[in-house]
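WARN no homologs supplied; continuing
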Amino acid sequence: MKQNQVLVSLALFLLSASSFATDAPYVCAEKAYAGRYGADQAVILCSGATSNAPVECAEKAYAGRYGADQAVLLCSGATSNAPVECAEKAYTGRYGVDQAVRLCRGAQ
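OK structure emitted
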């Protein structure tokens, strides 16, 4: 009996995970839009998202030295905070903010 309960729980988890993956761009955009980003920025940020990583990355960037548009450009398509971490290293080096954003967009 316990084995059946485990299998049912696993099946329900997988269904909910696949549902999130399907809805991930929408969920991400809703989180962005409910925060500090406009509808167009939310769409750019979260198009093709597989999680909330783009909006989480953008929030980290915006809390630092980047404006909203720079954060959206830097973090659109992000799967982690790698783009903002890369940009911070680039900025403290020899690159300006806009250069750091362009350089690190898409970092994994």
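The helical segments are 2-34, 39-46, 53-63, 68-75, 82-92, 97-104.
OK
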